[in-house]
């Protein structure tokens, strides 16, 4: 049995695929370095990310898969559910071992699972794009924190860069402790060392971090929603279907009024 460990990056996972073929030793498991449990029987192989090797694997997949299938494979990496590394590996191995295109071969478990994982990630991506709310800070930065079920932050960057091209903003994933910062020109990944300004449970900034006008704008937003709401047409079941309760923490209109007093 062989356990491969890697640094958690997508390039690192592709490097594992390369190393397994080079060694001709298929993995019994694949795990991130900080999560790996040593095997009682077998060998643990620590794989160092090599961009050249990762590129060779990706180029090989590009020759055999459509753009949609490649996107689904990347989404499976972002899915992060238990066993996702082996799922990516098994899919890649099936691609390289099959003389025909495997994208429609749903009798293969890995093909069906990759498609299902990709759909879940894609759905979470769209919900984040719809429900993220920015808050203006004292230094005129627009900040939003998220805690998505899946690691969709890399997928929503382009949406917000297009939509808020004239504003500096940060979107921070509290669960994974990294974020993106847009400086009006480029987007960079960041990690915040000091999170004392954040109320993690609510996922919003503390009052002392707000721009002086921010609370007023949020109150106006709440008043607007109160006035456009028609109690006689209230359909909570339909509302929850379109706006699940776990996303309410992002929405200003769902927060208690006293939070901005």
Structure description:
The chain has helices at residues 10-23, 51-62, 67-79, 84-97, 109-131, 153-163, 214-228, 236-242, and strands at residues 2-6, 29-32, 43-46, 135-136, 142-146, 169-173, 178-182, 187-190, 198-199, 204-205. It is elongated, with a radius of gyration of 22 Å. The chain has a 5-stranded mixed sheet with strand order 4-5-6-7-8, covered by helices on one side. A 3-stranded parallel sheet has the order 2-1-3, with helices on one face. The protein has 261 residues and is an alpha/beta fold. It folds into 2 domains: 2-124, no CATH class; 132-260, no CATH class.
Oligomeric state of this protein: single chain
SSE order, as H and E? EHEEHHHHEEHEEEEEHH
Number of strands: 10
Strand order of the largest sheet: 4-5-6-7-8
Tell me the radius of gyration.
Answer: 22 Å
Low-confidence stretches are: 199-203
Tally of domains: 2
Strand content: 5-15%
> How many helix segments?
8
Structural class: alpha/beta
Mean pLDDT: 86
Q: Specify the helix fraction band.
A: 40-55%
What is the end-to-end distance? 60 Å
Q: How is the main sheet built?
A: 5 strands, mixed
Shape: elongated
Can I get a quick summary?
The protein has 261 residues and is α/β, with parallel strands linked by helices.
Which SSEs are present, and which pair or pack?
Blueprint: E1 2-6, H1 10-23, E2 29-32, E3 43-46, H2 51-62, H3 67-79, H4 84-97, H5 109-131, E4 135-136, E5 142-146, H6 153-163, E6 169-173, E7 178-182, E8 187-190, E9 198-199, E10 204-205, H7 214-228, H8 236-242
Parallel strand pairs: 1-2, 1-3, 5-6
Antiparallel strand pairs: 4-5, 6-7, 7-8, 9-10
Helix pairs in contact: 1-2, 1-4, 3-4, 3-5, 4-5, 5-6
